[in-house]
Design brief:
Number of domains: 3
Largest sheet: 2 strands, antiparallel
Number of strands: 6
Strand content: 5-15%
Number of helices: 13
Helix content: 40-55%
Order of helices and strands: HEHHEHEHHEHHHHHHEEH
Radius of gyration: 39 Å
Shape: elongated
Strand order of the largest sheet: 1-2
């Protein structure tokens, strides 16, 4: 009788057929082991790839997401000490901001900053720019300071009608950009984007506006912004590149002569009418620009001085360059002048700037008499 619990080895079949069966079983087992090994390797590679992607993704968004399982990162107790200026680049993530602040010595670690960044709902609104912070700040305080978006910057306003010299004086008086640096920058017209039609002369191309100057901005950066605004304004009003300089020359005359917006299109038309009939423009503002003196101080001798290329009494046509930097409304007046036959104009009240236009010499002389009466009544010549 066979023992039901006999040793398995004793139950192996014998003979040729039994030996072949055992060999097949061993080969099958070996194949199974190889398959299991290959599967293990594939799984390990897949997990490694997933882990790398997960780490990269986490590093990119760690400034926006908070990991509740992360250990607390090194942080300063605050409130901080010496002032430090730090630049936040355009498009910086929370991690990149933290890196910049860590390198500058503002926060103790990137991790502390990204944790604080994730916990502050306003952090996503931090704007690029230069900020004044403190060394050794608590990370949450650094984030709170940044979300205020109180950047270290200076605003400089250039009024309509300023000359280039006046623009440089204004910039130098309110920013760290010196006049010497501005003078040096205009000697390289291409670096500031000055178009070829300007002939290397910056006058008229520095658009009147308010500009924001960051600590790292230089003279070239600022002047390029001004020139760029002028080009954009001319393009926006449909001025062809070949006409840009003449439009700016005419607009600068209008800017310096006209006191009221309604007068600008009429004055632009009067100038065009004079040019069309080869009449000298006889504009005092141009004569004064060439002599670098106020228009109120001009003399009869000044209007006869042929050595002044800007003397529109003796030199016909437009002046050699613009005489100021015109604003949008003066440029528009030249592009779209009023309809009329005027060729004369004169202010009749020097306090208010009221100006009257005339078609004939007789009508003009009547307006001049009104001016003389006002001057006599107000103690002016």
């Amino acid at each position: 009788m066979t023992d039901l619990f006999e040793h398995p080895a004793l139950a192996q079949p014998t003979g040729p057929h039994g030996r072949r069966s055992a060999a097949r079983q061993r080969a099958a087992a070996k194949r199974r082991r190889r398959r299991r090994l290959r599967t293990t390797i594939v799984v390990a590679v897949v997990l490694a790839v997933i882990g790398g992607v997960a780490w990269t993704t986490w590093d990119n968004v760690s400034g926006l997401l908070h990991n509740p399982f992360a250990r607390s990162a090194a942080d300063y107790p605050g409130p901080g000490d010496k002032p430090i200026e730090v630049e936040i680049p355009e498009g910086a993530t929370g991690t990149q901001m933290g890196g910049a602040l860590k390198d500058a010595g503002v926060v103790a670690s990137v991790g502390a900053f990204t944790d604080a960044f994730a916990l502050n709902p306003a952090a996503a609104g931090i704007q690029p720019g230069t900020y004044s912070l403190l060394a050794h700040m608590k990370a949450s305080d650094a984030v709170a300071a940044l979300v205020k978006n109180e950047k270290v910057e200076t605003k400089v306003t250039i009024p309509e009608g300023f000359t280039a010299a006046q623009v440089f004086d204004r910039v130098a008086s309110v920013t760290t950009v010196t006049k010497d640096k501005l003078d040096a920058a205009v000697k390289d017209p291409a670096s500031i984007g000055l178009p070829a039609e300007a002939g290397g002369k910056v006058e008229g191309w520095l658009f009147p506006a308010t500009y924001t100057v960051q600590p790292g901005d230089d003279a070239t950066t600022l002047l390029k912004a001004m020139v760029g605004k002028t080009v954009a304004e001319l393009d926006g009003q449909g001025v062809a590149p070949a006409d840009r300089e003449d439009v700016l020359k005419t607009a600068s005359l209008v800017e310096r002569e006209a006191k009221f917006a309604p007068d600008r299109p009429k004055m632009a038309r009067a100038i065009k009418n004079r040019l069309a009939t080869d009449m000298p423009l006889q504009i005092d503002a141009s004569v004064a620009y060439g002599l670098d003196k106020p228009g109120t101080e001009l003399t009869t001798a000044d209007t006869k001085n042929a050595d002044n290329p800007f003397n529109t009494y003796v030199h016909k046509g437009l002046p050699p360059t613009p005489i100021a930097n015109p604003g949008a409304s003066s440029i528009e007046a030249v592009v779209h002048p009023a309809a009329g036959d005027w060729v004369f104009w004169t202010a009749v009240n020097l306090d208010t700037g009221e100006t009257k236009f005339a078609v004939t010499w007789q009508e003009h002389q009547k307006n001049v008499s009104e001016l003389r009466a006002w001057q006599a009544a107000n103690g002016q010549r």
